[in-house]
């Protein structure tokens, strides 16, 4: 990249003189054009240095002022005028307008032709462009070699920072800092009170998917130019590379060289993601066996602990399953596969930060991720709500959680796992809460697969006429029996609860004992009565 200042310091251009004193000499020069038409500004590319005799403005200084304004808005690098042929001297108004805009006006000596100057300037610029291109290709080669040798994202960031001599950090798709260059401390930004604002700007750039440069000002008035680059801009949620103090890259570094480094960085991130997916596949196989109802789970805990050591399974007295489900909005359907991978990546890397010894694992349904908590959590609901809010705030994706009950042995984990899944399925029809705890179904769950006729037969065999009473006497007798059993066969408590005399309770319990042929407090009969009362009541409902 060439600038007006660089060109004017080259010996072969020593006869080109700057006319105005307040010109911005840092303007980039990408190309050279020669033109004499009054409306030339409408046909020039940006960052052009225009060469002209200004013959169209020989007696029209106001027109030349308008041209300078139009070129500045383009923006153009400047204008070089061959004075002496048509215009011998510039009107002071022209120089005043140029100084107000910081627009460079250069004088070409009358002894030089515009074609000669154009040829020399273009040769110089092209030589610079060629050098920049070769340097960018060399950057790509060096970074590619580093990647092939297993360089991490952090090492690539450090190398890039050392080349451009600027602090760098990279944020993952969730807005969290993944790596920083050596010596850079995020506290430096926090002290300037601009980091949160910067994160908001980065989020906006991420949604646009294109490079942006912004100026941030701290409360003390200190200004900082920041350039933000999407890494893998074809992704819906790309990583974001942030270069601070990006106003002056050392020569021959250029935008092209940065882009080559970012390209390699993107491949490195992709490689890391593939490794994570491969590890996830091995996890999935392990947890599929551990949670399969039809798999013969070895009750020897130590065997499963050894088998699961590669996945950070530890010996504990508490294992609890949580299944999380993504609720991807319809507008994101096109990107659903990428979002599913991102969500697993987040739980893979971040979940353990919320609770030690937490293991995430993929499920067949890619919109769900399993979590294994291997230590008791005092406030698991509060922790999961924090995860819910973090993901929603950063990605705009809502997640819900099904929570199973803790079990004491790893080979019993499947029971907690299916409780978590069932709690999700049950809750979907109820409300929009992101947390669903498993509700114990009690003894009824043991007979879910039993035919209704078989349940009715059992209840009638045990309770006789009290199973499904159809007259007032049997209804009262059944109610007294149920209350008596609920009060642990205590007559006084039963009478008080039913608001009847103790003798009435005794009379009714005696009638029940005669009906069943055994004392009500007989252990075997008592449990059969409790089960039959519960099942017959639910079947009637």
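^ Assign residues to that structure.
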């Amino acid at each position: 990249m060439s600038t007006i200042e660089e060109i004017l310091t080259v010996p072969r251009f020593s006869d080109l003189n700057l006319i105005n004193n307040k010109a911005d000499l840092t303007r980039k020069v990408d190309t050279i054009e020669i033109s004499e038409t009054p409306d030339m500004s409408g046909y020039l590319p940006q960052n052009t240095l225009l060469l002209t005799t200004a013959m169209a403005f020989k007696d029209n200084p106001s027109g030349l002022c308008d041209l300078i304004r139009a070129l500045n808005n383009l923006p153009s690098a400047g204008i070089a005028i061959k004075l002496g042929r048509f215009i011998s001297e510039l009107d002071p108004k022209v120089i005043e307008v140029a100084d107000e805009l910081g627009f460079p006006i250069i004088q070409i000596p009358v002894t030089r032709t515009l074609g000669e100057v154009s040829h020399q300037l273009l040769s110089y610029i092209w030589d610079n462009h060629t050098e920049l291109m070769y340097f960018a290709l060399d950057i790509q080669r060096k970074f590619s070699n580093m990647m092939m040798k297993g360089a991490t994202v952090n090492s690539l960031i450090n190398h890039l920072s050392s080349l451009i001599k600027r602090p760098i950090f990279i944020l993952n798709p969730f807005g969290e800092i993944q790596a920083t260059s050596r010596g850079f401390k995020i506290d430096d930004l926090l002290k300037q009170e601009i980091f949160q604002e910067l994160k908001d700007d980065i989020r906006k750039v991420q949604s646009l998917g294109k490079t942006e440069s912004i100026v941030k000002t701290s409360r003390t008035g200190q200004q900082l130019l920041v350039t933000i680059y999407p890494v893998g801009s074809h992704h819906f949620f790309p990583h974001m590379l942030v270069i601070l103090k990006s106003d002056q890259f050392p020569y021959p570094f250029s935008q092209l060289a940065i882009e080559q480094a970012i390209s390699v960085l993107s491949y490195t991130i992709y490689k890391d993601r593939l490794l994570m997916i491969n590890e996830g596949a091995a996890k999935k196989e392990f947890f599929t066996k551990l949670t399969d109802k039809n798999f013969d789970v070895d009750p020897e805990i130590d065997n499963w602990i050894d088998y699961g050591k590669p996945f950070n399974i530890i010996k504990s007295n508490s294992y609890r399953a949580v299944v999380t489900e993504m609720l991807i909005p319809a507008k994101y359907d096109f990107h659903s596969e990428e979002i599913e991978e991102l969500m697993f990546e987040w739980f893979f890397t971040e979940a353990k930060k919320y609770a030690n010894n937490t293991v995430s694992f993929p499920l067949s349904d890619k919109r769900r991720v399993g979590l294994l908590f291997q230590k008791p959590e005092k406030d698991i609901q509060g922790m999961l709500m924090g995860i819910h809010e973090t993901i929603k705030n950063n990605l705009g994706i809502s997640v819900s959680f099904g929570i199973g009950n803790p079990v004491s042995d790893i080979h019993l984990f499947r029971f907690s796992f299916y409780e978590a899944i069932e709690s999700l399925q049950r809750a979907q029809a109820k409300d929009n809460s992101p947390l669903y705890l498993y509700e114990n179904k009690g003894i009824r769950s043991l007979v879910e697969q039993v035919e209704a006729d078989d349940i009715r037969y059992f209840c009638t065999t045990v309770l006789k006429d009290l199973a499904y009473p159809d007259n007032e006497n049997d209804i009262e007798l059944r109610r007294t029996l149920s209350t008596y059993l609920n009060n642990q066969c205590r007559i006084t408590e039963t009478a008080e609860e039913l608001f009847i005399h103790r003798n009435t309770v005794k009379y009714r319990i005696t009638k029940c004992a005669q009906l069943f042929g055994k004392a009500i407090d007989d252990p075997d009969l008592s449990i059969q009565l409790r089960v039959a009362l519960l099942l017959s009541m639910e079947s009637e409902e």
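The chain has a mean pLDDT of 83.
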